[in-house]
Write a structure and sequence with these properties.
183 residues, alpha+beta, 3-stranded antiparallel β-sheet, 11 strands, globular
Length: 183
């Protein structure tokens, strides 16, 4: 079960801490305090097929790209990223961008965050490892992060075939060391 107020810190200086889980909101939303480190991880262009994502910037400047256009959001700004729209978000500095992230509806996005940030804190989200982990999450989760560079149906088809094989090598959608359960 996802844990609130347990920060995950990546090697790049990015961090996320759950504030409200899906269980706490009866599936309405997941809320997290997300800090994008100055020149931290640049999340690849991605989308959420079934969820709307919102960031309330509390300090620093959040850089986000939607439809190929770069935008800057300072403190007090609310950034809305509708479902199905490819986007990126990060901080180019000079200071970190602190935000409150909300995903609606919740789905299992609290598990998605714990898994991605937990693996990120171990330095495991690069190259082939990143791709394999993403395919397992797409294959097993209700609300995975989808890559924007490939159609959703193709990602789901690849995941359907690839996930059982990846699981033989120890990959999981959720890991016990991050969420106290594994599946």
């Amino acid at each position: 079960m996802p844990t609130i107020n347990k920060p995950f810190l990546s090697r790049s200086g990015d961090s996320t801490e759950l504030l409200e889980t899906a269980a706490m909101t009866n599936g309405r939303c997941v809320r997290a305090r997300t800090v994008f480190g100055s020149n931290g991880i640049r999340v690849p262009s991605h989308l959420h097929a079934d969820q709307d994502e919102t960031y309330e910037v509390t300090s620093g400047t959040l850089t986000y790209i939607v439809n190929g256009t770069e935008h800057l959001a300072g403190p007090g700004t609310i950034v809305q990223l509708p479902r199905g729209i490819p986007h990126q978000h990060f901080s180019e500095g000079p200071e970190p961008a602190a935000t409150i992230q909300t995903m609606k509806p919740a789905g299992d996005f609290d598990f998605v965050l714990e898994t991605l940030l937990g693996l990120g804190s171990e330095g495991r989200l690069h190259g082939l490892d990143f791709f394999v982990q993403g395919m397992v999450m797409i294959g097993r989760m209700k609300s995975p992060v989808m890559l924007a560079v490939m159609t959703i149906w193709l990602q789901r088809a690849i995941a359907r075939v690839f996930t059982p094989v990846a699981e033989l090598f120890g990959y999981r959608a959720v890991y016990k060391r991050f969420s106290c359960e594994e599946w």
